[in-house]
Structures are given as structure tokens and as C-alpha cells.
Specification:
single chain; 283 residues; alpha+beta; four-stranded antiparallel β-sheet; 6 helices; 10 strands; elongated
Length: 283
């Protein structure tokens, strides 16, 4: 699944051609993806202006002039591709329609946004903007890791007494929204914390150190355009490049890059997910 940096990269790519623009036409080419589309989705989108494009956790939210918000989740292979815009940021010509082009939005400015999802694990829904935070996909999410609510004091309080591994705790979307397997591995590596450690057994100082490290990892990944593993692409079809900077994730058997460390990166399974870490410098 794409994580926060990939979703934020897509949002930033869509903003120049969607924010403040009217959806001239909408085509919904199948009844469902992971779940059924909302009733009359194409009709409800056509003619609406996109007042604001934002992100909540791993979801893109398009607030519309109609008082509704379009909720988008990319799933495992979903891509939002832009073509035909007049700003010269993307390919000028609209590509030939593909088999898995499930939702197509033609904007009044000439841009076309195509949601392509081969595996159909993505999702789209419409909800009232003034109550969107209570939507079943968003309700119960923790604070954004790049926001002010995600503070040292907050994380210390949420991890206190928890006997789950710290990696599992950070993947809990009720504690912090948007983090996934890749960036938790990278953050724990940078912080020198073993993913095996029980969250509640970490000192307050070590937990507090995690907050700026998590933010730095996410900022670095966003700046690099995300990590395009397997299916993920940016809105112009290009790959993200942060995967070339991984210090831990996917580096099983390779030397640890921490200066002075002679260890190697190991892989273990935690809750059915691969965890990569250096047992020598992560304690």
C-alpha cells in the first residue's frame, strides 16, 4: 500500500490542475472497486468545483463546492494520472483509454485525471464535507505525524504501558495516521531503536526522540517523490526515488550504513510484515 509520502506526492501533483477548477465531466466505468461506488457518483461530481485538495492519513480528500468531499484511497496499485493540462506540467495529449481506467474526471481547464487501478483495491466515496471526519474510513484515526498534535508528550502518553512491539504500535493508525511498514522501519533505524522493543518499555527520552525522526524521514521521502515500489507512480507517471536512500528497508544481508557499525541488516517477520533492522546498533 502507498504510505503517507506517496499519497502526499500524488496530492501535490493533482493540486495545480484540480484546486479551484470545475469538473466538467465525470465517467465512472464500473460499479465498484474495493467497495461499491456511491450512488450517482458521476452525476454528483459533474459541475462541482474542487475548492480544496487535502490529505488525511493515506486518503486524498477533494472538498467540492456542492458541500461534499470526494474521498480517494489508492489501494495497492491505484494511480491518479494527469494528462492534457494547459500548464505544461504533464503530458499534453490524453492517452488511449486503458482497461483499468475506472474513473475519469475531465476538468474545465483541459486537464484529465484518470484513476487507474489494476488490482481494484482502491476506493472512492462521497461524504458531506462538514461531517467527513466521522466517515467510517477516517473516524478513529490518530493525529497526522507532520502536524502539531503529534508531539513528544502525545507519543509518550500513547505508548506508555503498551506491551506490543514499538513497530506494531507505530503502525497502529489510531496512534498516528499515515505511517506504514517502510517508513516505520526507516524511522526506527534512524532513531537507533530495535523494532522488537516493547513500546511501553522505552524511556520517555527515546520515545520523544522518535517524533522529529519520523518527521524527518517523511519530509525526506516527500522531497524525493515517495518510494515507488512495484505499482506506485506520481501523477506524471514518473517513479519516486526515496527507495534509493533506504538505510534499512529491503537491505537484508547488506552492511549497516551507520558509521562505525559492523553489523548487517536483518529481516524478521512481525505481524505478518517484513521488518528490516540492524541488531547491533538498534537497541
Amino acid at each position: 500500500m502507498p504510505e503517507l509520502p506517496e499519497v502526499e506526492t500524488v496530492r501535490r501533483g493533482l493540486a495545480p490542475v484540480m484546486e479551484g477548477q470545475v469538473i466538467a465531466r465525470a465517467a465512472v466505468n464500473r460499479p465498484d472497486l474495493r467497495w461499491p461506488f456511491p450512488p450517482r457518483m458521476a452525476e454528483r461530481l459533474a459541475g462541482a468545483r474542487v475548492d480544496r485538495l487535502r490529505r488525511r492519513s493515506k486518503y486524498i480528500l477533494a472538498d467540492l463546492s456542492t458541500g461534499e468531499t470526494l474521498i480517494v484511497h489508492l489501494g495497492m496499485s491505484g494511480r491518479m494520472l494527469v494528462s492534457g493540462d494547459t500548464q505544461g506540467l504533464f503530458h499534453h495529449d490524453h492517452p488511449v483509454a486503458q482497461k483499468h481506467d475506472h474513473v475519469v474526471l475531465d476538468m474545465e481547464n483541459g486537464a484529465r485525471i484518470t484513476f487507474n487501478d489494476a488490482r481494484r483495491f482502491g476506493a472512492m466515496d462521497l461524504a458531506a464535507t462538514d461531517g467527513v471526519e466521522a466517515h467510517r474510513l477516517l473516524a478513529g484515526l490518530g493525529p497526522e505525524p507532520l502536524g502539531n498534535a503529534f508531539s513528544e508528550d502525545y507519543l509518550i502518553a500513547r505508548l506508555k504501558g503498551r506491551m506490543t512491539p514499538v513497530k506494531s504500535a507505530l503502525l497502529d493508525q489510531r496512534i498516528v495516521a499515515g505511517l506504514g511498514n517502510i517508513y516505520v522501519c526507516e524511522a526506527l533505524y534512524r532513531a537507533g531503536i530495535s523494532p522488537r522493543r516493547k513500546a511501553g518499555q522505552l524511556s520517555a527520552q527515546r520515545v520523544a526522540r522518535l517524533v522529529p525522526v519520523i518527521r524527518d524521514v517523511l519530509h525526506d521521502a516527500i522531497a524525493a517523490g515517495g518510494s515507488s515500489l512495484r505499482d506506485h507512480r506520481q501523477t506524471d507517471g514518473e517513479l519516486g526515488y526515496f527507495q534509493h536512500s533506504f538505510a534499512a528497508y529491503g537491505r537484508e544481508g547488506l552492511p549497516c550504513v551507520t558509521p562505525g557499525c559492523t553489523g548487517t541488516i536483518a529481516r524478521i517477520a512481525q505481524s505478518g510484515r517484513s521488518t528490516f533492522y540492524c541488531a547491533q546498533c538498534q537497541r
